[in-house]
Amino acid sequence: MIQQAAAETKKEDELKGKARILVSDSMSKEGLAPLLGQENIECVQENADNVDDFESYDALLVRSGTTVTPEMMDKMTNLKIIARAGVGVDNIDIDAATKRGIVVINAPDGNTISTAEHTFAMMMSLARNIPQANASIQAGEWNRKAFQGVELRGKTLGIIGFGRIGSELAKRARAFDMSIIVYDPFLTQERAEKLGVELGELDNVLRTADVITVHTPLTKDTKGLLNKENIGITKPGVLLLNCARGGIIEEDGLYHHLESGHVGGAALDVFEEEPAQNNKLVSFDQVITTPHIAASTKEAQMNVAAQVSEEVLQFLNGMPALNSINLPTMSKEKFETLQPYYELSKKMGYILSQSMKSPVQDIEVHYSGEVTELETSVLTRSLVAGFLSTRIDAPVNDVNASIIAKERGITYGEKHHMNTLGYSNLMQATVYGENRSFTIHGTYVKEYGPRIVRINDFNVDFYPTGHLIYIQHSDKPGVIGKMGQLLGKHEVNIATMQVGRKEEGGDAIMMLAVDKEASEDVVEDLTSIEEIKRADKIEV
């Protein structure tokens, strides 16, 4: 007993000053290499169900096998960081971690190459009918004429979404002498030229490309981005690929055009419902499928583990977490002072992003009045994060917003000045594109909360929340009546309305708060009114 107690005491002394890391899912030594052998780190690989000393760990590394619940976090009283060796963080309660001051990180680009390579392999297989020919051979057949393919050389590849994976795919396509046309609403002409691709509108890409692949996030704006209607404007015999997210290509629309013969073939790694059992698309001979394995390579699995291991090491050594999913921690007192402005800045970012549909090169934020006494850099990062969050296929927050902005060729900065326009505090944010800009002013009023008080050169006053519709129109009698009648037809109820104009009979704007999200049909019908120049739905 004395020897056992002495051994335990010795172990406790050895652990003093060391950070303990629990690796609760299987990870290779190569992936964990940055953590292994560190004098100030003890790395323990153990299934979470078998752990009884949760309170001793400073960091937790998981894949998809461990579900990190609030109850688990409550047991891990010393936990400072959770690392997901992969992109998805569905198995981690982010809100619970944030409330407990625990940083959550992931590996957003560890599987970029594997996904790009898989997409290209699917494209080659589709062009040369490789899976079908293999199945024929296995069935004892020898039918060479049935599997005549097409060359990729000289063909045009359309890439919809030009982030990390899209750009890596373009490199490989150029090596095969393919022409590349890209649709990405946030890619500028200058950056497209620098990357050696042609930039086009969505319809232009669909009409031009021989092969089309999608690499966008799945959001309410990209769900069904390729559908029955616009797939119909593609070239006869077009090849379609989706190794990104199920639902970007509408499966019913794809089925229709496969059945008619308009689409020459499709390669799918992802589906609207997974597992994709009894999916009607697999009934076509010209459709090839894989079970969501684009990111499943030994190298990718090693890379994501190594990436988060390195970042956990840096974090435990006092460095910032660059791929944090949640907000950085700060003192309760400081956050309470900053919070109302923080909320305002995030909402301003949302509005700017949805109001400026064209590519953006620069974001400029001005502060004046009382807000200049606070840590405005936090507010600027919050605004940029809000702006990017509707455009990026990855969690965006204050920590990683600057990195993502840089990758997208977007610069941002802030200035302090004296002009408050009569308010006690004022935030002005302007986004600049190639041909236009968009500016909003916001203020925080203690009695009323965050307010938007100016849009471009028009004075307004509204609470930025819920379902909004922004309208630019000519200041003529009857416009508001036509607008109201149209919304009534669509059963869209107006909660509040703010109007602004520069002069009688000139340009004017309306900002409507409505009771439900406006559909695309509502927006399209609004712009059909002669006096209305533009209508945008905005969700805040």
Question: What topology does this entry show?
Answer:
Elements: H1 2-15, E1 19-23, H2 29-32, E2 41-45, E3 59-62, H3 70-75, E4 81-84, H4 94-99, E5 103-105, H5 112-128, H6 130-138, E6 156-160, H7 164-175, E7 179-183, H8 189-195, E8 198-199, H9 202-208, E9 211-214, H10 228-231, E10 238-242, H11 251-260, E11 263-268, E12 287-289, H12 298-316, H13 332-355, E13 360-369, H14 376-389, H15 401-407, E14 411-416, E15 425-433, E16 437-445, E17 449-455, E18 458-462, E19 467-474, H16 479-489, E20 494-501, E21 507-514, H17 520-527, E22 532-539
Parallel strand pairs: 1-2, 1-3, 3-4, 4-5, 6-7, 6-9, 7-8, 9-10, 10-11, 11-12, 13-14
Antiparallel strand pairs: 13-15, 15-16, 16-17, 17-18, 19-21, 19-22, 20-21
Helix pairs in contact: 5-7, 13-14, 14-15
What are the defining features of this structure?
6-stranded mixed beta sheet; 7-stranded parallel beta sheet; 60s Ribosomal Protein L30, Chain: A; Rossmann fold; single chain; 540 residues; 24% strand; alpha/beta
In short:
The chain is of the alpha/beta class and about 550 residues long. The chain has helices at about 1-15, 30, 70-75, 95-100, 110-130, 130-140, 165-175, 190-195, 200-210, 230, 250-260, 300-315, 330-355, 375-390, 400-405, 480-490, 520-525, and strands at about 20-25, 40-45, 60, 80-85, 105, 155-160, 180-185, 200, 210-215, 240, 265-270, 285-290, 360-370, 410-415, 425-435, 435-445, 450-455, 460, 465-475, 495-500, 505-515, 530-540. Residues about 1-15 have low confidence and may be disordered.
